[in-house]
Automatic annotation (TrEMBL):
One of its GO terms (biological process) is amino acid biosynthetic process. PANTHER family: GLUTAMATE 5-KINASE, ISOPENTENYL PHOSPHATE KINASE. It comes from marine sediment metagenome. Transmembrane segments: none annotated. It holds the Pfam family AA_kinase. This is Aspartate/glutamate/uridylate kinase domain-containing protein. GO terms for cellular component: cytosol. Residues 12-233 form the Aspartate/glutamate/uridylate kinase domain. Gene3D superfamilies: Acetylglutamate kinase-like (3.40.1160.10).
Length: 237
């Protein structure tokens, strides 16, 4: 199925934005890039597609405000950066969508929310209410309070779980690479469609990583497994 045909067939989409997509090389929020993305999201909304956005970038965004040149190793400093950066992210999203007549709502999650049945049902109802009100949910892991025991570990995993939670037709993961390469980085041949995640595909995935993000292509394949088990599709772009 061609990508345009795919987008025409869906009614609810979860889009994950990786840190490299949202930030510049000197660790600033790339507001010009974010605005370009928002324009595309607005186009999808105008076509009647419901959107939920899983955003990364909070820690990187907060580092500059706290005077941190490199990503801190201590949990407390990471959480402080996440707290500052998350508010910056939301201000950007809120302004850009509001200028285009759309409302966003923030949802911060930890793993235990999606494990415990009552919390799971509560957050699912929240999503349902936001969608029915025409609001675009902006989701991130609650890094400012999450510890190892309740962390998802990466937003690829989070986006897949959210896609299943809201029964999305499609998960789109936007990254700093164009897709899945047959032999990254030497070959440059993109695999436009992967029908089965074989051991060979998993081996290829382990060769790809990004300096800003967690997990590289390996976590994206894990996300694909999560959504395809539910009969849904995933697109890496």
């Amino acid at each position: 199925m061609e990508r345009n045909e795919l987008l025409n067939s869906v009614r609810r989409v979860v889009i994950k934005l990786g840190t490299p997509v949202l930030t510049t090389e000197d660790n600033r929020l790339d507001t010009s890039r974010i605005e370009e993305l928002v324009e595309q999201f607005v186009w999808l909304r105008q076509k009647g597609v419901q959107l939920a956005i899983v955003t990364s970038g909070a820690i990187i965004a907060g580092m500059r405000s706290l005077g941190l040149r490199t990503k801190p190793k201590s949990l407390a400093k990471l959480q402080a950066a996440a707290s500052v950066g998350q508010s910056q992210l939301m201000r950007v999203y809120e302004r850009l969508f509001k200028e285009r007549g759309l409302i966003v709502g923030q949802i911060l999650l930890t793993k235990n929310i999606l494990i415990e049945k009552q919390r799971y049902l509560n957050v699912r109802n929240t999503f349902s209410s936001l969608f029915s009100s025409g609001v675009i949910p902006i989701i991130n892991e609650n890094d400012s309070v999450a510890v190892d025991e309740i962390k998802f570990g990466d937003n690829d995993t989070l986006s897949a779980l959210v896609a299943n939670l809201v029964e999305a037709d499609l998960l789109i993961i936007l990254s700093d690479v164009d897709g899945f390469y047959a032999d990254y980085p030497s070959n440059g041949k993109l695999l436009f469609q992967i029908k089965e995640i074989s051991p060979e595909i998993e081996k290829l995935a382990r060769r790809t990583n990004s300096s800003k993000s967690i997990g590289g292509m390996t976590t994206k394949l894990m996300a694909a497994k999560t959504v395809t088990k539910k009969g849904k599709m995933m697109l890496i772009a």
